[in-house]
Prior knowledge:
Blueprint: E1 2-6, H1 11-21, E2 26-30, H2 47-62, E3 66-75, H3 96-106, E4 116-126, E5 133-143, E6 159-161, H4 173-179, H5 181-194
Parallel strand pairs: 1-2, 1-3
Antiparallel strand pairs: 3-4, 4-5, 5-6
Cofactor: Mg(2+)
Keywords: Hydrolase, Magnesium, Metal-binding, Nucleotide metabolism, Nucleotide-binding
Organism: Bacillus haynesii
Amino acid sequence: MKEVIIATKNEGKVREFKAMLEPRGYDAKSLLDIGYTPEIEETGQTFEENAVIKAETISKETGKIVIADDSGLSVDYLGGSPGVYSARYAGEEKNDLANLKKLLKELEGVEKEDRSARFRCALALCIPGQETKTVEGSVEGYITDEPRGTNGFGYDPVFLVKDKDQTMAELSSGEKNKISHRAEALKKLSALLDQA
């Protein structure tokens, strides 16, 4: 199996990557698995810029193939927020529950048809000695009035998937890994990985 480093300490993301990469012959390791603890400053204005910053930083320090993602939630009623600030929406400490509460408070009283949103994911693939490549994926939906489901992480419990009557957190991991923004981006990335 080829080793690939996933530039994250988020266990939820790592599980999703492992589930998608291992059948393709990749041994996915997180930053925690390799003992990498420094915070990487995400100074980009877009998901793509932040993914590239993370992938190139880790690849330079380890000399290994690195996949980095930057992803988040864009809510139309909020002008695209929380966007690149999704993980720290309620403050610097990255608290999923606080983020959910803040989002639901901001959408109080807003009708369902005005609560349209999408999860977006940019993936950057950095292979030592090659130019960094990026792909994007997204999934459309709506923000619910209250959390539903216990699977997933982040905003999953309040993201009602378009054309389904389930939130991301009500889907099984297998179902989520077929339709998620990360799954779509990873499908696009597969072709690039096959050339690695």
